[in-house]
Amino acid sequence: MDRALALLALIGRHSAAGISLSGLVSVSELNKATVRRLVLALIRAGLVEQDAQSRTYHLGEEAYVLGLLAQGRHGLLRQAMELIQSLARETGDAAFLSVRRGLHSVCLHREDGAHPIRTYALMPGGHHPLGVGAGSLAMLAALPDAEVEAIIAANTPELLAQYPRLPPELLRAHVAETRESGIALNPGLIFEDSWGLGIALQGPDGQLVGALSLAAVESRMKEPRRTELAQKLRAAARVVEARLSRRQKERQT
User: Fold this and answer.
1) Which of 56, 110, 116, 125 would suit a FRET pair with 86, their CA atoms being 20 to 30 Å apart?
2) What is the share, in percent, of the chain residues with pLDDT greater than 90?
3) How many other C-beta atoms can be found within 10 angstroms of the C-beta atom of residue 67?
4) Which residues does 15 contact at the CB level (< 8 Å), separation at least 6?
């Protein structure tokens, strides 16, 4: 285990350019057979991937997700945790914090309220194509038009294969609705009785940093309660964004 983790750290330090098998052997001072065996185990775990052309090794998808989770705990999540807990406590529903990861969104944290539902798919570390789920949709809608179209085009095969109730044309319509209202609504498109509301979070520079969302069964998302939940999300988002802005100013002084 220690040797595998040491190799993972080596690959991480060379992840941008990649590192070859011979490079790992040279730096680690392990024999070639051992390095190959340990790297294959890391690949199976999703922590390492090999470039098909150069044959060099890079950090894999799971390593990236773990990095996001760690970063969230010490950055955005730290600023938002109190608000996520408050949302779950005050509403009784499940509250989430998500961030963007390329073409997907990743859940950093989930806080259950007094009325948790069993059908929602968001778990810490779980990821979906951008636009799938309320927080994910809020983030997609916060991006420029050209980027939205590029993301939808790239994710279309996955959308059609895994999310037949959310084809690209419907996703575009939801993006427009989210921009108009400022709140993303998932009306049970992933799981029939799992509804969600989401709002994008912006950093001090105006760039997207993540999203807050709530999930509940349909009966708990009907009006006028849905409007009340949206107001709570907006208020929580303003507090998180203010904290992020204050934190940046403190770093600059």
Assistant:
1) 125
2) 49
3) 13
4) 58, 59
